[in-house]
Amino acid sequence: MFIDAFQVDLTAVARVRAGYPFRGSIEEVAGGEVLAVQMKDVDLDAGVRWPGVVRTSLAGRKEPDWLKAGDVLFVSKGARFYAVCVDDPPAQAVCSPHFFHLQVDKQMDLLPAFLAWQINQQPFQRQLQQAAEGSSQLSIRRPVLESLTLSVPPLADQQRIVALAELARQERRVLSALIHNRERQLQALAENLAQATQISH
What we know:
Elements: E1 6-9, E2 14-18, E3 34-37, E4 42-43, E5 47-48, E6 54-56, E7 72-75, E8 83-85, E9 93-95, E10 99-104, H1 112-119, H2 122-131, H3 142-147, E11 149-152, H4 155-200
Parallel strand pairs: 3-9
Antiparallel strand pairs: 1-11, 2-10, 3-6, 4-5, 7-8, 7-10
């Protein structure tokens, strides 16, 4: 299926910011007013898992770049580079320095969910792998990310692609639940067999 699209550098359609510059590990503060999103809190399918995000306090006086619904978090360090779209945070929230914080230009016809989807696809992933630097841990520098090429189709096509991607996520969740239930059935059968063997002896 052919889809018409124009190519553009990422920096032309989105603002790329660094994560909040925490010094060292993020300290959990009971009753802290800020949520600090870390690598453990994000999942390619689930996005940001807010219930597990730690609360902390920020020491700096500078106003942070707060996370908002529709922002995109890009994992810039580690074995795998990927992006997730942020839903509405339950409180003021920032992200750790392991992320780049992307905000789509409101004047551009670009859906944040489409941006996250495209970053996670093979054509963009190939660009990332070619641009990655480091020996012990690979990473993507901000200027490099900003210079990478996106293909942006019309808004209607973006909406169709995002809907199809969401359908695929739902199917994966259903299949995963079915597999998990089948494994539990098999485990129960194995336990019953083991008990039956013990009784017969």
